[in-house]
């Protein structure tokens, strides 16, 4: 029967003998994806032949085992011993105390559970639920949390088509395929009620419709990852397709995805904790704005417990962490306000929650945005008491980008901190690198680098042949692929998504110069390039096509290759096999950029623009910094790219290649291996996801849990009432009179280093009391316009009772401990013990003259 489709699909699983039952447990805990002994155990079950293109996939491997093979394994004592060892090791890993449990004071101060929401998770190629760096970062976050014993619950969606598979047409144009993913063939299990029925969550939609979802669980070591799936029979066709594709569909489709992730995700967590007895999360972490609606659902829950909107908002904020990953407004999800109102109103998912208040949370007009638009990042920041960017530079960029949400404060005082991303070493480090001794010799390092490079060359040739066959080439045409790349040639890697700011084709700016580098007679270079453009991004697809056409040129195709369908399986061989990792984004548009971290963990040196994490940790011993254009040159796109491409060629030609090919009498490039050694020993520990997750725990999760515990219902009401009172009274708060030291009354007077001038000020507080505010003297350097910079603040104390006009006197001193031209002013800010940051309300009062042209008193 040709072309007849099945009306139902199901998976037939083998019945495992009792002695082999642990295989099922091992296959359904994704720890195998970073635990080499377990991977090796499953790989040994594969029949001889070429490896599967997706790498190890234990569920697929088990599903393919025939009865005779199972019987042979059940009688194989050596295999059974290895299986028992792997099962015992997993049991110990899952239940023994780890860092989080062993740390002093953990039981009292640390949250019993946390929820981590992300629109995508890149845990393994066998569970393709990611598109790029955001998902890989989320997967590494879960793995590191598991290794450390941090009690996370991951929350995401199960996309039935995942992200797209990429191939190339004959002309080099990107083509997309969306293979159907059957949960029965994935390392996930369905969450069921006590009676065996699938657990289900439901969202009400406008017009009396409903959106239902089942919950699948992926076990990521100790961390459960809950994945909501709308492909259930109870849904109408439109709702059934909500979780069809990652980042697919139009605006309403995306809104429904984000409602299911945020609102449905909270309900999924409640269902999971009810059925498993797991503690309720004390802290909710929103990985980007896509999951931001989770805060609204928690407000709805608290209103059902008797809190008003404002008190519920304060309670939610106290226990919420928001991480932003975008350095540009264009990267933020935005929806039409009327669309949001219709879906979240009385006829939608959040009945009883004031729609006007909800819309105000997403208002982007303070950021210079449009009044008719709902901004998910603005809502995420307003719903979280703690927020962070993902590198030091990105933190600064984020504070400037979102400063409008905290009017009256300079960008450097905006309450957005930074925690630099990290990567999960056991996932990304080649086993041979992990087996290096503590003090490897130069020869050992060099031989390791060649082994990894040779393995990459073999993999590239296989992938390139497969790609050309997909493009329509006959096998007889592809003999040339046997000599593509050379295991003894300097190998540069470049692989990532293909938005325009990552500049995939900067290397092609001067094609003749690039050819000369590739074909240099003594110091040749070879390039391995990969990357996916978003299906809707024709500009990105044109960049891919331009690169592919250059790489198709018979003159250079043995030295440069483009590999389609970049993903985790490819990356695991690409990072270790490259000598240099190239990254040339437009600065400062790379929030962090973790691919270079994964390369560094394998002894690959970085060649990058000073952006993201590289701006923070670059040292000449770790690699090279590509100079970036500034001034007028940076404003002219063509000139900027010409200059930065020329700088890239110059670095490769004059520094990178000579260092690689300068060999000693023993044939080893000692200068190169010295850089590899420093990269592994000094840079490696900084880029670890373990370090990142520890920072989240100590700097954000524990303070958030502490704040949430402190906010009892009564204190939440008190805080909400206090904030409303302060906002209403603030227009009457003024700084009326400032005096700074008698000897500094003359603006031309010089001050001596070490002097401690007295500051006196009178402040009108209106309806507020002194306990409601903090009065500060602020000093700093001044520029030609008398604008303060590099400021320091000193608190001033009440100095007696109010004067006849009701103004409160304050006084204090500050130390002149730096030379140069300085200024001083005074400011008043709200103060309350439950505020996480003084700028939280965005309210500040300054002397009238400092809001105009002057900066207060000058100190020379």
TrEMBL record:
Catalytic activity: [(1->4)-alpha-D-glucosyl](n) + phosphate = [(1->4)-alpha-D-glucosyl](n-1) + alpha-D-glucose 1-phosphate
GO molecular function: glycogen phosphorylase activity; pyridoxal phosphate binding
Cofactor: pyridoxal 5'-phosphate
InterPro entries: Agluc_phsphrylas (IPR011834), Glyco_trans_35 (IPR000811), Glycogen/Maltodextrin_Phosph (IPR052182), Glycogen_phosphorylase_DUF3417 (IPR024517), Pyridoxal_P_attach_site (IPR035090)
Gene3D superfamilies: Glycogen Phosphorylase B
Its EC number(s): 2.4.1.1
Superkingdom as given in the UniProt entry: Bacteria
DUF3417 domain mapped to chain residues: 16-127
Signal peptide: none
GO BP, one annotated term: carbohydrate metabolic process
Pfam families for this protein: DUF3417, Phosphorylase
Keyword vocabulary terms for this entry: Allosteric enzyme, Carbohydrate metabolism, Glycosyltransferase, Pyridoxal phosphate, Transferase
Family note: Belongs to the glycogen phosphorylase family.
Task of the protein: Phosphorylase is an important allosteric enzyme in carbohydrate metabolism. Enzymes from different sources differ in their regulatory mechanisms and in their natural substrates. However, all known phosphorylases share catalytic and structural properties.
PANTHER family attached to this UniProt entry: GLYCOGEN PHOSPHORYLASE (PTHR42655:SF1)
Protein name (record): glycogen phosphorylase
Organism (species): Streptomyces venezuelae (strain ATCC 10712 / CBS 650.69 / DSM 40230 / JCM 4526 / NBRC 13096 / PD 04745)
């Amino acid at each position: 029967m040709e072309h007849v489709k099945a009306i139902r699909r199901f998976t037939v699983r083998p019945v495992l003998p009792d002695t082999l039952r642990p295989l099922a447990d091992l296959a359904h805990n994704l720890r195998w994806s970073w635990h080499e002994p377990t991977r090796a155990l499953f790989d040994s079950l594969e029949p001889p032949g070429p490896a599967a293109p997706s790498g190890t996939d234990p569920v697929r491997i088990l599903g393919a085992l025939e009865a005779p093979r199972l019987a042979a394994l059940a009688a194989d004592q050596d295999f059974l011993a290895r299986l028992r060892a792997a099962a015992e090791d997993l049991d110990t890993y899952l239940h023994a105390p780890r860092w989080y449990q062993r740390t002093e004071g953990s039981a009292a101060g640390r949250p019993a559970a946390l929820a981590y929401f992300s629109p995508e998770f890149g845990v393994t190629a066998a569970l393709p639920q990611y598109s790029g760096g955001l998902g890989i970062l989320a997967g590494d976050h879960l793995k590191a949390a598991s290794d450390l014993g941090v009690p996370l619950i991951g929350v995401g969606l199960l996309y039935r088509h995942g992200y797209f598979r990429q191939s190339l047409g004959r002309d080099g144009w990107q083509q997309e395929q969306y293979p159907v993913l059957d949960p029965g063939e994935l390392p996930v299990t369905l969450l069921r009620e006590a009676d065996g029925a699938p657990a289900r969550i439901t969202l009400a939609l406008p017009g009396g419709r409903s959106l239902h979802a089942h919950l699948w669980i992926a076990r990521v070591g100790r961390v459960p990852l809950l994945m909501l799936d709308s492909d259930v029979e109870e849904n109408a066709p439109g709702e059934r397709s909500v979780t069809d594709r990652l980042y697919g569909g139009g605006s309403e489709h995306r809104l429904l995805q984000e409602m299911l992730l945020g609102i449905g995700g909270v309900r999924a967590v409640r269902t999971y904790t009810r059925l498993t007895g797991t503690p309720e999360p004390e802290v909710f972490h929103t990985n980007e704005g896509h999951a931001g609606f989770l805060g609204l659902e928690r407000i709805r829950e608290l209103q059902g417990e008797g809190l008003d909107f404002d008190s519920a908002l304060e309670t939610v904020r106290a226990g919420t962490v928001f991480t932003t990953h975008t350095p540009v407004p264009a990267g933020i999800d935005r929806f039409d306000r009327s669309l949001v109102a219709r879906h979240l109103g009385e006829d939608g998912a959040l009945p009883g929650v004031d729609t006007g208040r909800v819309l105000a949370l997403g208002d982007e007009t303070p950021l210079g945005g449009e009044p008719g638009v709902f901004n998910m990042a603005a809502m995420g920041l307003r719903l979280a008491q703690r927020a962070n960017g993902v590198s030091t530079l990105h933190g600064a960029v984020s504070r400037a980008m979102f400063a409008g949400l905290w009017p009256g404060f300079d960008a450097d005082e905006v309450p957005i901190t930074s925690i630099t991303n990290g990567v999960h070493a056991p996932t990304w480090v080649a086993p041979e690198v992990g087996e290096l001794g503590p003090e490897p010799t130069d020869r050992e390092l060099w031989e390791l680098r060649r082994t990894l490079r040779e393995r990459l060359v073999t993999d590239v040739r296989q992938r390139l042949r497969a790609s050309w066959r997909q493009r329509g080439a006959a096998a007889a045409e592809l003999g040339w692929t046997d000599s593509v790349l050379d295991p003894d040639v300097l190998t540069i890697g470049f692989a990532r998504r293909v938005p325009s700011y990552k500049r995939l084709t900067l290397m092609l700016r001067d094609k003749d110069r690039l050819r000369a580098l590739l074909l240099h007679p003594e110091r040749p270079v070879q390039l391995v390039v990969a990357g996916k453009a978003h299906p809707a991004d024709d500009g990105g697809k044109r960049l891919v096509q331009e690169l592919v056409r250059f790489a198709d040129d018979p003159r250079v195709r043995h030295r440069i290759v483009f590999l389609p369908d970049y993903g985790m399986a490819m990356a695991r061989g690409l990072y270790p096999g490259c000598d240099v990792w190239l990254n040339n984004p437009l600065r400062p548009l790379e929030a962090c950029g973790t691919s270079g971290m994964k390369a560094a963990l394998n002894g690959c040196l970085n060649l990058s623009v000073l952006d993201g994490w590289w701006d923070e940790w670059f040292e000449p011993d770790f690699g090279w910094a590509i100079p970036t254009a500034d001034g007028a040159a940076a404003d002219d796109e063509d000139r900027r790219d010409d200059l930065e491409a020329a700088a890239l060629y110059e670095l490769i030609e004059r520094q990178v290649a000579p260092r690689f090919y300068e060999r000693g009498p023993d044939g080893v490039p000692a200068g190169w291996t010295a850089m590899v050694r420093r990269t592994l020993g000094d840079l490696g520990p900084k880029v670890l996801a373990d370090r990142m997750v520890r920072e989240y725990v100590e700097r954000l999760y524990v303070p958030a849990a502490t704040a949430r515990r402190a906010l009892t219902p009564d204190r939440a009401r008190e805080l909400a009432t206090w904030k409303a009172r302060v906002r209403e009274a603030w227009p009457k708060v003024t700084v009326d009179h400032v005096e700074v030291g008698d000897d500094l009354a003359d603006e031309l007077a010089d001050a001596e280093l070490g002097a401690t001038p007295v500051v006196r000020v009178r402040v009108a507080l209106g309806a507020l009391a002194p306990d409601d505010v903090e009065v500060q003297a602020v000093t700093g350097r001044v520029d030609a316009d008398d604008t303060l910079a590099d400021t320091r603040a000193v608190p001033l104390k009440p100095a007696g009772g109010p004067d006849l006009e009701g103004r409160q006197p304050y006084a204090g001193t500050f130390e002149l401990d730096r030379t140069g031209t300085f200024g001083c002013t005074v400011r008043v800010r709200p103060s309350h013990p439950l505020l996480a940051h003084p700028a939280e309300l965005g309210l500040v009062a300054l002397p009238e003259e400092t809001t105009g042209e002057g900066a207060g008193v000058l100190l020379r």
